[in-house]
Amino acid sequence: MIHYRSLGFVNTRVMFSVAVRAGFAVPAYNFNNMEQLQAIVLSCLETQSPVIIQVSKGARDYADRTLLGHMAHGAVEMIKREAAEKGLGEIPIALHLDHGDSYDLCVSCIESGFSSVMIDGSHHAYEENAALTRRVVDFAHLHDVTVEGELGVLAGVEDEVAAESHTYTRPEEVEDFVSRTGVDSLAISIGTSHGAYKFKVGQSPRIRLDILHEIERRIPGFPIVLHGSSSIPQDAVETINRCGGSIKDSVGIPEEQLREAARSAVCKINIDSDGRLVMTAKIREIFARKPEEFDPRKYLGPAREALRDMYARKNREVLGSAGRAPEIMTALVGIQYNREVKNE
Fold first, then answer.
1. Which residues span the domain enclosing 270?
2. Is residue 144 among the annotated active site residues?
3. Is 75 inside a domain boundary?
4. The model's pTM
5. Measured in whole angstroms, how far is the alpha carbon of residue 147 from the centre of its chain?
6. Which of 38, 173, 211, 317 falls between 20 and 30 A from 292, CA-CA?
7. Strand, helix or coil at 270?
8. How many domains in the chain?
9. Catalytic residue among 98, 120, 159, 272
10. Would you state the pLDDT for residue 210?
11. Which helix (H) or strand (E) holds 7?
12. pLDDT for residue 132 is more than 50
């Protein structure tokens, strides 16, 4: 077994504690390849933001679980070097399984160095969801790995996760679920959705902040997670379509609503589709402008920089996480010191 601390990762416990208290959300960005991963961690170093780098089951299969693990560890080492060279503080990085659908998958990720896992039992009946989540928590906590559970179902499609309609989280269930399962954070359904096609143009998208606030009242201070929180940048959609693509009209979650959610108990916000759209838009733009181009570095490099700019802006203007890494790192150093003293 590879423990995440040996790879330089942290779990999400201190991240979330600071985020709930200070009123911001830790960015949780998905990656499938090297350029996405570079953009994520470099943007967070630049903005001094904590970050959760997320891997779905599909991404793990696509990139190969062994290679992906080495890439994530390499990102930590790269950030240490970059921080030293630029005179910046190091940032806390968690490696998280997004939408784990089985006990065995969660165990495999924990044993390969993940510091956090999500067990998504939301497609099961309540009792089965609670039992499965409890089983994952029992194993994960033996290794100091944090666990995210889910109540409610998000509409949309993302990798293997698909649902036609929302099932909003029932606030009256959250206290029992958190108590029975021992989860460290809870993903809820309040109107966000997976994928690029969330709301039609002309609709007035609105997440159910009333449900969020009632959940917050029932489990005060408990870390809440929002999935499916991309805002679907219209400039990227326009560029894709202008340069030969065919993205249907759609709008995402308004950023001002995400910022409001981040000021309350929401301490982790997942963003994936925005990154896919921005990356695709830049690559299509280059191919349209330079059809003779065939060097991947000449189109993946600019796509990486476009991603980096977008993530940095999200940290500063939407999530409120910019500048929060030093406080978390200080707390983590104190925990490590206490652990070492205890073991002497």
1. 4-330
2. no
3. yes
4. 0.92
5. 13
6. 38
7. strand
8. 1
9. 98
10. 92
11. none
12. yes
